[in-house]
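Hi,

Apologies if this is the wrong queue. I'm a grad student, and the batch job for SDR family NAD(P)-dependent oxidoreductase from Cellulomonas denverensis produced an output file that my downstream script rejects. I'm not sure whether the problem is my script or the file. Here is the sequence I used:
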Amino acid sequence: MRTLVITGASDGIGAAAAAQLAGPDRRLVLVGRNPDKTHAVAERVGADAAFVADFAELAQVRELAARITERYPRIDVLANNAGGAFAGPAITGDGVELTFQVNHLAPFLLTGLLRPVFTPQTAVVTTASIAARLFSRFDVTDLDTSRHYGATKAYGNAKLANILFTRGLHARGVRAVAFHPGNVATAFARKTTSPLKLLYRTALNRFLIPAEEGGARLAFFAESDAWRSGQYYGRPGRVDRLPRRASDPALVEQLWAGSERLLAR
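Support response: The file is valid. Your script probably expects a header line. Output copied below for reference.
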């Protein structure tokens, strides 16, 4: 019996992947921010458990990790799927810009706290985005873009951080992969001031793929071994071109150290 933890599972890609991964040989552990939606998805797919946590509060992430490790002695897959594009700059109660915290710092923290129940075969699957290549303007002296903020840049930087984090996990002996789910018709950009909102709120959204297709990509990486650890995939079976700086091991370590400093505040 394999145990799979999926964050951002209350709707969109996470909910679609949960439905596709459900089966008698799997324990699905779903995490979402909205209690009603998260529990509804869990009931619909027959999940083993549903937990509610808002990644805008790191105390809730720490409590989530404690509850999961108390209940499950082993995790086979951790799908870091929660995220979104937000208006800002918005500084959380933890002193971190919201987009960076929800998309990167909270999953970084959760993954670290869950590592005691990882096995050598555990896979960490992170939902990144092509935005990492298109919009990132990464500056390690302004890691969360709180000083020089732009909504689109903040999202691109956070998605680049997902890829750098994946490479850092691989360097530390954890099987990890990041992937672009496609341009999926979800509500993730509804609260942003970024031009991305236009794509998701206008007639242009007819060019988006359904959540089920994005969920299928997540499900593929969660259940298959046909991928290379430490890589970023544009779609299953195709390693995608990295943003230029993402191949720099020094930047990986700078992100790692910077993330730990933010968590130590």
